[in-house]
Design brief:
About 35% of the residues lie in helices and about 15% in strands. It is built from 12 helices and 10 strands. An 8-stranded mixed β-sheet has the order 3-2-1-4-7-8-9-10, sandwiched between helices.
Length: about 325
């Protein structure tokens, strides 16, 4: 079997914006869901999709703030969605299903990073629950509206390099590490795309995951200035110090590209970065570039799917 996990030569790159990758693409009549679509990369994604003619439903924890943030954008619907609460996910999904409208793009964008130890639901570690399980449940609950042609895009991260799935302690019952927990959740995002593409393909549902790049957004809200200075992201005065950081419009580009590009029409289950299919990390030769083998492994992906079904009681396909 051919290994498609290699760059296509898309013509875009790290400096491309979400609007750049949609140049010449008319999304009139298309519907998208963008979780967390009112701030950071989500807002830039919503803006670019609506500018290209799409209707966008955004699921957010704070609908009032979301309506304010998107008030100047056309064709945006805001609904409440807390990905760490399966009852909230179920209610959001029921509202989407009640419309009966086909969903062409589901962009699982919302997430949390490096938060203090937090438990949600029946004691689940919050990053795994919010970043992965909530999106897993949402995707499976609205499955009937995805059938017949849809792309599901999971926003992963190069942070997946920090940890595979920790099968001996997924919920960090034996000591919490915020960066390992974030890394595991981002590996889960990538593995979700692998298995979702496998089970969805016969229904014309294709899936991708991606690393958006490093961008200053509300995602960093749990980090102190000292931590970001130690990482080299900020200088000692709190000013941006890492020239590889992208603007939000550049950061949103890869997820928009993965959701819409005709270059991906016959592909799926792949991890992308810089508006192209990513290289394999083992061949990249530099840290945090490309996708780790454990994040694209079909057996790991199926095992993660089975665990997610077991935990959420949703999605047994």
């Amino acid at each position: 079997m051919a290994d498609h996990q290699k760059p296509l030569g898309s013509g875009f790159g790290a400096h491309s914006t979400a609007s750049d990758v949609l140049s010449g693409i008319d999304l009139t009549g298309k519907r998208a869901i963008v979780t967390g679509g009112h701030s950071g990369l989500g807002l830039e994604t919503t803006r670019a999709l609506t500018e290209a003619g799409a209707e966008v439903i955004i699921g957010v924890r704070d609908p009032k703030a979301a309506r304010s943030a998107t008030r100047d954008l056309p064709n945006v619907t805001v609904d409440a969605l807390d990905l760490g609460d399966l009852a909230s996910v179920d209610l959001f999904a029921k509202q989407v299903l009640a419309s009966g409208h086909h969903i062409d793009m589901l962009i699982n964008n919302a997430g949390i990073m490096a938060c203090p130890e937090t438990r949600v639901g029946p004691g689940w570690e919050a990053q795994f629950a919010t970043n992965h399980l909530g999106h897993f449940a949402l995707t499976n609950l609205i499955w009937p509206l995805l059938e017949g042609g849809a792309r599901v895009v999971s926003v992963s991260s190069a942070g997946h390099h920090n940890s595979p799935i920790r099968w001996d302690d997924v919920q960090f019952a034996d000591g919490y590490d915020k960066w390992l927990a974030y890394g595991q959740s981002k590996t889960a995002n990538a593995l979700f795309a692998v298995h979702l593409d496998r089970v969805g393909r016969k229904h014309a549902i294709r899936a991708f995951s991606l690393h958006p790049g490093k961008i200053f957004t509300p995602l960093q809200r749990h980090l102190t200035q000292a931590e970001m200075t130690a990482e080299g992201w900020l200088d000692e005065n709190g000013n941006p110090a890492d020239p590889t950081f992208k603007t939000p419009a550049q950061g949103a580009a890869t997820q928009v590209w993965a959701a819409t590009s005709p270059q991906l029409d016959s592909l799926g289950g792949l991890y992308c970065e810089d508006c192209d299919i990513a290289v394999r990390a083992e061949a990249a030769g530099e840290p945090f570039v490309g996708v780790k083998a454990y994040a694209t492994d079909a057996t790991e992906a199926e095992r993660t799917w089975r665990l997610s079904v077991e935990l959420t009681k949703i999605g047994s396909r």
